[in-house]
Amino acid sequence: MTSFYEPNAVQVTSTAQGITTITINRHHRRNAVDGSTAQRLYNAFIAFEEDPTQKVCVFHGANGNFCAGFDLHEVSKWQETPSETYSGPIVDPDHRVVGRNLGPIGPSRLDIKKPVISAVAGYAVAGGLELSLLGDIRVAEEDATFGVYCRRWGVPLIDGGTVRLQAIIGLGRAMDMILTGRSVSAKEALAMGLANRVVPVGKALEEATKIAESLLKFPQACMNVDRANCYYSVYNATSFEDALRNEFDTGCKVVASESVRGAAKFSKGAGRHGSFSI
């Protein structure tokens, strides 16, 4: 079995200001992810996390589609025999979910430590839907389509779809999408909270980058502790009290630094009347 090597399947750029852009670039497959692309996506997000100069990530797909899921053309070649070109989680009988290890489609098991904004154009379906859920904010173009299209082929959600989707849009709406596999338009996605903003075709990346730039202006430790506490309360808290305790304990650690400096700016007149020019 042969494999076509694609050196540019994942493209990463970063700015001096602190914005990393991660791009899936397999447009001949509507940016469906194969094994090597999954590994490269995973590596790209780890590198973003570990780089202290990079503060916000913009995640998108090239050439008019976000991601059409895992590449079923690759899966179809496996048949009943082991793949010679893919040795990832799907075909490894000993693979287990352990911490932040590699998921079938790459970074799906990461609780990424800094903000991620997904810029969604075209299809974000099956595993591509799951990847879009890595974003804290999803900007969708007017023609974007979300859906559990893998329902048709007997391919389950194994990259966090059953975990993140219901946390974002609620169990009832998630069940509708998961059981029926139906298409969800950008307009409906906005109404249900799956998309945060809808923009004209061709503008998602631009809008996502603008949002990223706006986040750079804020005190980063405070923003990231609030972000982390939201996720803790949804996924990890054992009780309401535990969530409140975690919020207080972690939040207080930034008060002595960023909060005091921010209060000093306010006392001198900055930020009055809701102004974000600080």
TrEMBL record:
Pfam families: ECH_1. CDD domains: crotonase-like. InterPro entries: ClpP/crotonase-like_dom_sf, Enoyl-CoA_hydra/iso. Keywords: Virulence. Pathway: Mycotoxin biosynthesis. Belongs to the enoyl-CoA hydratase/isomerase family. This is Enoyl-CoA hydratase.
